Amino acid sequence: MLLCELCGTFVPHCKEFLGIFVPSISDRLTEGRKALGLSQQALADHVGISARSQRNYESGERSPDADYLAALVGLGMDVVYILTGQHTNGADSGQALTAEEETLLTYFRDASKEVRRAALGALLGASTPMANQARGSGQNLVGDNAIQIGSVSGKARIKNR
Question: Residue 65's pLDDT is what?
Answer without folding.
Answer: 92
